[in-house]
Amino acid sequence: MPGGTGSGPPGRAADRPVVTGVGVLSAAGRGLAALTEAATHGKALSGPVTRFDVSARRTTRAALFPDTVPLACTFPLARAVLDAIGQACGQAGLTAAEGAGLPVLLALHSDERTRATADAVAAGVRSGWGAPGVTRVYNGACVAASTAVADAAALVAAGRHERVLVAAGHLVGPGVFAVFDAGRALARDGEARPFSAGRTGTLLADAAAAVLVESAPAAERRGAPALARLAGWGRAGDAHHVCRPEPEGDGTARAIGAALTRAGVDPAEVGYVNANGTGSTLADRAEARALRRVFGPHTDRLPVSSSKSVHGHALEASALLELAVTIGALGTGLLPVNAGWLGPDPDLALDLVLDGPHAARPPYALSLNSAFGGANTALLLAPG
Hints:
With 384 residues, the chain is of the alpha/beta class. The chain contains eleven helices and 16 strands. β1 and β2 form a beta hairpin.
């Protein structure tokens, strides 16, 4: 695993990507502040599913948008995504002139509505922000949004674009809910309990999120404060099984190692991990082993939590939602609580954030995600 002084990899430091705008719609409501507050205090946001009939399902709960988030329109997911984009661009102070030529990377679930949703988002960014449309759509399951962020960071770091907009969205629907329920992937007791004894699965979630990734000098010229710096990013596949994780966490460990190497950061410099932590017995165990492989003895004093325990699992949008939570934690100096805790699992041995708010100012934080098929991503953040 990588070592180093923390001085960063060779290259032009001025081109390092930063995040200047974040937009969020979640079960906590509109905006990052509401989501950060819920995550900081471990306030689980799940409730009964009323959007469609779940009377025949084993699990009947999910983390859905509250009634204050309007969805009554032809393309409700596009509307939610455009709301998040508006928040992110507004916070970053982006003008329509600055949005001309802006690449837009969009993560969505692949179904019969994907093209229409992407087209509606494209029309919205053209009219609202001067962007040419949606540049690329990512359907890579639960690493779709984090893959898009890594691509955005690479484009900015290479000097190919001054800024890139990344957006993602997911609405809980009857089809996916039925599939996850039939596959026994959803928590039987209706509570997500990552890394806890007695965990039985995840809970699905609504989400829309957006981040504006810019080069540091471009942000400085516009007078846009950096909310966080994308210090490193890594991706790795293990191809172990179509849905089961590689038991030793090989892919996750390699993704983390790649992110640390890219940043020139020693593992001991990482001060918080927002883990993938779905609440799956096998996946949580594999991720814990991956962390132990990378961080060794430092694992015993490395705070870890899964914000999915609060906002649920939004599939293709989850990684961007969790990145937003991690940025919020760096900004407030309060680490998200690992909610749903029942007791320790002796196979895991992690330093979980269980009592909040947990005050900390980590120099670096990781946001991790994994997907069916053995895809794994790691995004390494530093305070802006």
